[in-house]
Here is the input.
Amino acid sequence: MQRKPKCSICKKAEGVYRAGETLKRFCGAECGAILALQIKAKRDAAKVKETKKRYAKEKEAFRDNDLPYQHNLTKVSFNRMRVLQCKLRFYERNQEPECISCGRKKMDWCCGHFKTVGQAGQLRYDPKNTHLQCNKNCNMSLSGNITGTKTSRGYIKGLIEVYGQTIGAALYQYCNEKQYQKHKWTCDEVKNIRIEANKEIRRIEAILNTYEATQ
Here is the structure.
């Protein structure tokens, strides 16, 4: 014998009325009113969800072509990559990583720009312009500590001491020459830099894990 459908609200009485196109049933006016409110709330929630989803897609499409937003994302990846690249260079030479400006070791590392983004935005993603630097002291407190202090060598001398006279002088000259060669970034260009930087991060992290495991 086929069971008779129950009311979707009270679960007791026989559901003799169907609520629109749904499979839900109700037994009378009181349960029908409650069920109608539930169905409306569910439909309203679905509309809100669809609106949020559409807004998220529109926002993503806008950000995809928003150059400042893309710079902010890529800056994080590029800076992280350069910190790892510089640390790996020291490890490969059996040296302890040191700050390009003050020479200190075991610091709060960051990617220090020789020519700042404000000075030369075209060099913001150039490895030749970015080197391992302590963040709080040289990068932030001393604005990069370019020329040095009474107790530190500074960025310029650091290039020579870390990379040697020939390479250090070449890096210094390169950055000074490139400082005035303007470059107009595009979103696609910046995104591609981020993609490659993230690949390099994964590659170097695997190598550094090996170094740390053998220490």
